[in-house]
Specification:
The chain is mostly beta strands. Strand 5 and strand 6 form a beta hairpin. The chain contains no helices and eleven strands. The strands form two sheets. Strands 2, 4, 5, 6, 9, 10 and 11 form a seven-stranded mixed sheet that branches. A four-stranded antiparallel sheet has the order 1-3-8-7, with no helix packed on it.
Length: about 110
Amino acid sequence: EVQLVESGGGLVQAGGSLRLSCAASGFTFDDYAIGWFRQAPGKEREGVSCISSSDSSTYYADSVKGRFTISRDNAKNTVYLQMNSLKPEDTAVYYCRQSPYWGQGTQVTVSS
């Protein structure tokens, strides 16, 4: 059974940092790209970042480029999202995804 478990969310002031983790199990982790998505209240879920399985190439949405960094530790079956210079508009539930599976999400709230 595929499981994706996010952690690391919380409340932080604008300009602060958080590191999200996505711990994966139930599949051969090294073989799959993993993505981070987020959904703010009243808005559609949007892609934030993803990392490939092979060469760990990365993608970032324009809204987070230069502030967020995605990485993976294949030995720990974990993907991380380091979020710096957080803004109130980053407030959302953050989900990791290994298509077609989703984690349960972790809340990130950035106060102004």
